[in-house]
């Protein structure tokens, strides 16, 4: 299961054993590299960056760390080993052997899922492409680039499936993945959150905390897939994902830490004063949480969705930790609670469980998201301050599903458009908030130095010191 780096496209799928496929992917590769140089991290071309590269898919030793010239990063194709005799765990085909090829009748849906997953990966790189110019430290710059190269590799993972299993339309979809652009008016990325801007590092950390976590949950649902190549590739992607969420959680925690230090030192919680002192005040941080959390909740799709029911029944996409759930894994009889607004009030209705699978995955996600917010609050509590961060109500600021368009405050109160408009500034980042955060963004690249608005991390990467030279600028 070691990865062959002697090949033009590093892989552990015996690519050289299928010359036609190898040629097709080698044909796609220059297009990918062109996309990377046009839309990948700005100004990074000559940098040597201390990056981890996958050298095996074995959990105990899959990483290798070294300085890599950025555009020479070796993107490759890595699948977890096949599990012998794996059977389908849910839906109408439960108990049958998993599929190594795509059944004709599920081809369109599988392609759509793979394309949607694949589309988010380059989208996030595009969203983050200017951030290197305003990094708060070398350590953070290195983490940004690590996330970016791995999202690039996640695109490769999906493109491999498209080329290998979907013939000509797969190749066309792979091409289209390089054509769409985040935020483009004519050719946007597929899902809402991936067309938003990531203009500053607070947004970046919020994105990697909240939106990469959608990645975790969607990938977990796909590791259950009856289509075994998808299950195996998403399982490996998840190993990389953990670091992305760590970058987000620890990044936000370090911002909170620094703000609390300044609050204590100057004995103030006045946002205007704190802004003058060059840190992110906690109410602004809360508004960024509200924004990124609500935009990410939309990524789970409509609360009641016939697509979700079909994906599950046909074995394409399971639930989070399907194997650990004690039920019939068919869900024909069960119901699941979903929120609705009836006569201006939020009520809980019961939907058929099969149709409510997007909502179920969203609920699993919410639990996980909350845990990190509690850890952020510990940072504040340890500083002896009263302020507490929270997640807004599930219905806050939603654009997808039954609650789309309904105005709901963070506390869950359904309000009129007029009430919403009067208070929106308290709940979502204002242009002034964004301008303030933007004003903090300088560029700090001296090893071991950090911008004023963020505390250093507790530890470096791969047991290196915090002041290690993570990036050589040449
Ligand atoms: N924005 O029946 P519904 C990651 C559309 S993140 C815009 O609920 P479904 C990463 C939907 O397409 C993980 N449109 O849809 C993170 C449909 O359109 P049509 C990404 C949306 O299919 C950070 C209609 O609304 N992976 O990896 O049940 C950095 C009806 O909706 C949105 C996946 O998402 C939206 N937010 O559910 C890098 C997994 N939501 O057909 C990477 C694959 C829905 O009416 N995707 N629509 O025109 C899926 O499983 C499903 O497509 C979704 C949507 C769960 C996303
Ligand atoms: Fe990814
Ligand atoms: Fe990620």
Tell me the number of structural domains: 1
So what's the overall shape? globular
Give the low-pLDDT segments.
none
> Measured on Cα atoms, how large is the radius of gyration?
23 Å
User: How would a crystallographer describe the biggest sheet?
Assistant: 3 strands, antiparallel
What CATH calls the topology is Ribonucleotide Reductase, subunit A
Instruction: List the ligand species.
Output: benzoyl coenzyme A, fe (iii) ion
Sheet/helix structural class: mainly alpha
Corresponding CATH architecture: Orthogonal Bundle
The fraction of residues in strands falls at 5-15%
Q: What is the rounded distance between the termini?
A: 35 Å
Number of helices: 12
Order of helices and strands: HEEHHHHHHHHEEHHHE
CATH class: Mainly Alpha
Helix content: 40-55%
CATH level-four homologous superfamily name: Ribonucleotide Reductase, subunit A
Structure, explained:
With 474 residues, the chain is mainly alpha-helical. It has a single domain (99-472), classed as Orthogonal Bundle (Ribonucleotide Reductase, subunit A). The chain has helices at residues 19-39, 107-127, 138-165, 167-179, 201-223, 228-266, 271-276, 282-297, 306-313, 357-382, 417-427, 431-440, and strands at residues 48-54, 63-69, 335-342, 345-352, 471-472. The strands form two sheets. A three-stranded antiparallel β-sheet has the order 2-1-5. It has a two-stranded antiparallel ribbon with strand order 3-4. A hairpin with a 2-residue loop joins strand 3 and strand 4. The mean pLDDT is 96. The structure holds benzoyl coenzyme A (BYC) and fe (iii) ion (2 copies). Residues 121, 151, 154, 215 line the site of one fe (iii) ion. Benzoyl coenzyme A (BYC) binds next to helix 2, helix 5 and helix 9.
